[in-house]
Amino acid sequence: MSRRVELIACATCGGADRDEHGQTRGERLLRQLDASVTAADSSVTVSSVRCLWACKRSCAVHLRSPGRAGYVLVELTPSAETARALLDYAAMYGESVDGGVPFKQWPQPLRGHFMCRIPPPAGEPG
Question: By CB count within 10 A, which of 27, 31, 74, 101 is most buried?
Fold first, then answer.
């Protein structure tokens, strides 16, 4: 049984690098995530936050699920390939027993982009 997973992308990431429509890198990644979500991603919720305080390492996302360690990924490219990789990783994270996904299963666009692991709150397993 898959656990509910939240994928939170920083909407203000890369604010100095706006595209021709005035969108930040973070907004472009959010647009790609929204466009990439399929019925198979039903356990993953995509949302945004104004800032993850990783401004010098945009684009940044936070992956979390109740009772599990969370992860912050940085320096992501706002592309369809990255969006699909994030959604695929989020699904594997949700399907795993403890939130751990073996490195050999990580989608290539995410390798080298994990900045930190955030333990679950005290008293919660993880």
Answer: 27
**Structural domain count, the chain:** 1
Report which of 63, 78, 75 is spatially closest to residue 6, judged by C-alpha positions.
Answer: 63
Crossing angle of helices 80-95 and 25-36, in 10° steps, is 60
Tell whether 58 is covered by a domain: yes
Asked whether residue 80 is domain-assigned, the answer is yes
φ/ψ bin of 105: left (φ > 0), alpha (ψ from -120 to 50), beta (otherwise): alpha
Contact 48, 11 (CB under 8 A): yes
Is residue 125 one of the residues assigned to a domain? no
Task: Specify the CATH number for the domain of residue 21.
Answer: 3.40.30
| pLDDT tens-place string over residues 45-54 | 999 999 999 9
pLDDT of residue 103: 95
